[in-house]
Amino acid sequence: MTKEQFTKEFEQARPQLKSYILRITASVQDSEDIVQDTYLKASTKLDSFRGDSSVKT
User: Which whole-number Å values give the CA distances from 55 to 9, 27, 45, 52, in the listed order?
Assistant: First the structure.
């Protein structure tokens, strides 16, 4: 998966992820920070992503 493909899929999943994290944290700022951290960490591991699942799982 290329970084561009990952970014596109992540952006499609972002609203669901942010909503889920917001329910857990009850903080808009914290949920935005966690979503951003998740993107950054996941994007650095793209070379080990086998593609057996979607980005959402």
Answer: 7, 24, 12, 10
